[in-house]
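worker-03 picked up job from queue 'complexes'. Input manifest follows; two sequence lines, order preserved.
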Amino acid sequence: MTPAADPYRSRWKLTGLAAAITLAAVPHALHLPPTFPIFWTLVAGGWLLALWGGRNTVAPTPLRVLLVGSAWLLTWFHFHRLTQGAFVSLLSLFIFLKLLEIRERKDVITAVFIGYFLTLSFFLNSQSILSAAWLFLSSWMLTAVLVAFSHPGKAPRWDFPLRISGRLLLHALPVMALLFFLFPRIPGPLWGISSGGAAVTGLSESMQPGDIRFLAQSEEVAFRVRFDGKTPPRRDLYWRGPVLHFFDGRAWKPGASRPAPAPKRLHFGPAILHEVVLEPHHKRRIFALEFPHAAPPGSRLKRDGQLVAEQPITTPQRYIAASHLDYRLGTELGDWERQRNLQLPFLGAAKSREMAAGWQAAGLSPREIVDKALNRYREETFGYTLSPPLMTLDMVDQFLFEAKRGFCEHFAASFAVLMRAAGVPARVVTGYQGGEINRFNEETYLIVRQADAHAWTEVWLDDAGWVRVDPTAAVAPDRVELGLAASLPGEALLPFMLKPEFGWLKDALLLWDGVNHAWNQWVLGYDWRQQEELLSGLSSDFFSWRQNVTWLLLGGLLLAAGGLLLYWQARERAQRDPARRLYDRFCARLAKAGVERRATEGPLDFARRASTARPDLAEGIDSLTRLYIDLRYGPAPAGKAFDAFRQGVIAFRVKTKT
Amino acid sequence: MRFLIDRLEAWMTRKMQPVPGPIRLGHERIYIIPDKSGLTFGLLLTLMFLGASNESLGLGFVLTFLLGGLAFTALLATFRNLFGLTILAGPSEPVFAGQTARIAVGLHNQGDRERWAVTVDADRWSGETGDLPPGEILFLALTLAHAPRGVQRPGRFRVHTRFPLGIFFAWSRTDLGLEAVVYPRPESGRVPDPPIPPGRGAFQRDGPGEEDFRGLRNYRPGDPPKRIAWKKSVGMPEPLVKSFAGAPGGILSLTWEATAGRDVEARLSRLCRWVLDAEKDGESYGLTLPGVRLPPNRGTAHRRACLEALARYGSDS
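worker-03 finished. Artifact:
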């Protein structure tokens, strides 16, 4: 099949293919170095030049081998390892190389299929609503290419493939919705742990000075929460993240761990049910309100109270947790655990240690030591700020005795050091505090951003277990009561969403956040667990819900098929011209009289035959047929003539022969 | 796989008899299966589903299920591209052996919807593809290149389409009893003349009646000498003879026996040449074949009848 002789092939159609492939590849350019788009442009450009220049578009084998080799090298230089991202990038290069191999129709089809797969692979990077819009655009173009290559010769209109493609996709939407909700999902991941894509800001496993302050400048959403009932007061909204035990003089780290039984937990008071929709951050930690009753399915509660999931969070996760604000964590502290939480570095913080040791020596009880330290923060007029003076060497001493101005990380770190030096086991807890309430679609939910990141401490009291002590609250209670923005009025470093200006713009952005929240919940967060929750109510006595759902799905598909066919038929019938419709009615009546119009019989021939068969109706048949011919084949139906015809058909009655 | 489908289809249509009339393609006549690219599409969807499941990509599922829905819609659309079409037999002009035989097949689109890229073809015959606007009849030709002599029948031919996506293949087999008549190729070069029937001597020709000069033709043994156009024959290898309309210039009897000594096709080939020459020269001629006897006559209809008899010789029709 030579290119010249193939009636399905045309230069415009092939150009359309190149355009569709480029559209599928373009968004990937956001995550790739410029060399990749340059490669695409060179290959596609060269190919188009050959196409429109009338030359052979199939590249010679040596050139193809050279290009494949350079594609591999390009990917290797950028990724160094065959990760997921590398594979996708390689695919984007290969799809353009596929253009150079197109000889027959099946090559075009292969290229389109790779295009669909390339579209899918972009969602590893982003699943925003914008990505969804691009999904439909890309599918539309790629499908249009398939339509174009199924029709030989010149297309009736330049947009013929696009219109057919668009209509097909539109009519495919109901089936898509049916499959999306009912098609049984399988729990992933299926092979290994997904290596994850781009890095995302968020809490790290350690706390260096400046870490939390860095996050305070990001308005990126960490997660959104919907409470069943009233949202608890902000001062109670603590969301636990990594717990840090080891202080090396500068940074706090989780430290070594040892297998030990989990601390006993006691919960008091009502349980607060809430649903969290967590944004992907490629780590395994998940968040719930302090303190959750149990770990949500697919995760576990660590000994120090932190929640970790089985798999890294690479896609929005939706889960429900029940928490109690009033709780007791731990009834006794083992020796190793005690030592671990009294650890202090060999050198550093000499003055602070001395002061704290003095409190212990003075015979103060642990509770009194806690109060003493907190009072010191208040009395010594410590300041809460995003821009503290530079504290380099001995951070704790500098902060407690000289600078006296810092962010929550300074307060938490220094407080923990004081406690440990005074013999009270203490640890630093990082996480989030508070959140922003947003109303969308008559629902209230809480937005917790990276800017709400916070650090506080927990101290061990023998009669109360691990108790939360937030030294920042002692100095800047507004932070905990009203949020970061309120506690730092006029702070320039705050992210846009937390600043008081531009209320109307922020309202619009909050509205958009609401949309995104619904998007995450229903489209992205709908995984196999959600499906099970939604559909498990469909189980019956003899069948599991999966079996019932399969039948439901099949039934739904049949219904969809029937519905689609009926819809198409009705739409076509509506397009038939009204004169023809009336004539059909007339013929149907004659058919009842025993004279059926043959498929290929014209109106005149039919009239003649019918008059012969039923002479009693001859007059009516004759006049109606004449009217019809005038209407149909003459100029546009005049109003009066059409009405006369219509009246005639309605009045035409077939008297059955006796 | 195509082999299995052909076998299955042959079994399902074993009772199909040729039907001359228009045939409407209804549910029972249309078959639809995924094409090879359709199977690849299914594989693609499976891979996409597994990929989306592995990474829990909500939009991945959206795309996969959208394409699944697309396949579903395309199945219905491809089926409907054929459904309701009426197939009729079209005209067929006879040709000579070695030329391209053509039979027209009419597709009548009675509905209100356009049909695109509908193809008609048959085993060993080439076909054509066309679009059908609503209410119109389109004639697509089945062609057989280098057609052998005889009555060529496409037999059960196919009407099929892959539109709109090329993923599904819908077809219907019909047997309208189509025939293309292929005359034997007339023998070329110098051919010996047909014999004059016995008893009809040269003198018989000189009968009364209108004698309008019609032209000149080559001399044949038995022509009366007075008809020879001497002046015109100067320099010619053979004498030229004046031929007259209305004159029984010769009643030729083209018989099977006259071509003895050669194989069947050669004999038919020579007879064909004789018929063509005789008609061109204005002679009356009769044709005698085993089982067929056409009395001497002249004219287009007679020529056609003779050629057809030659074409059909030996076939079962």
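worker-03 released lock.
Residues 201-210 of chain B have pLDDT under 50 and may be disordered.
The longest helix of chain B spans residues 58-82.
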